[in-house]
Design goal:
alpha/beta, globular
Length: 171
């Protein structure tokens, strides 16, 4: 944890680049865009209302999957982006972190797999990097206590980012 705290202070892998108000089918969100300094990919967060400390924030960290997100291919392993946006649009305050990712063979192979099979198949290094990017973005926007739209999973090290999962909400 001390190493993570040091890296948070001195070795960020994201850089805030733009901020815009975006009107969506789910309401109006403040969008903040980040450049990933390792991959040069652009990630973003959609924020519903002002994030107030002391108030739990409904959060979804969503890794892009072009098959599921755009053509609605069946995927039993994750919250669909539409469902997460609907849930967050009804919350007092919320954030959807969208991590941009190229379509990978693991995403294709994971279609229609159960959650337990997917979690066993995914590589741990990719998971740590994704959690780190999401945690940096959530820390940057002031999230502390989260209602996480996810299956219950222990995310090691997120408390070093000042994040605390108080509740999991499965789809």
């Amino acid at each position: 944890e001390d190493l993570i705290k040091y890296k948070i202070a001195y070795e960020k892998t994201i850089k805030r680049t733009h901020e815009k108000i975006i009107k969506t089918n789910y309401g109006i969100f403040n969008a903040i865009f980040y450049e990933d300094t390792v991959t040069s990919m652009t990630h973003f967060v959609l924020i519903k209302n002002k994030i107030e400390s002391g108030v739990p924030t409904t959060v979804r960290v969503h890794v892009q999957n072009v098959l599921v997100d755009t053509i609605k291919a069946a995927n039993l392993s994750t919250w669909p982006l539409d469902s997460a946006l609907k849930k967050i649009s009804k919350s007092k305050q919320g954030a959807v972190v969208f991590i941009t990712e190229n379509l990978s063979s693991s995403q294709i192979n994971n279609l229609k797999k159960s959650k337990s099979k997917v979690s066993k198949a995914n590589g741990k290094m990719e998971d740590f990097r994704t959690v780190g990017i999401g945690a940096q973005i959530l820390n940057d926007i002031g999230v502390k206590d989260m209602i996480l739209l996810s299956s219950p999973v222990i995310y090691h090290g997120i408390n070093a980012f000042g994040l605390n999962v108080i509740k999991y909400v499965s789809k």
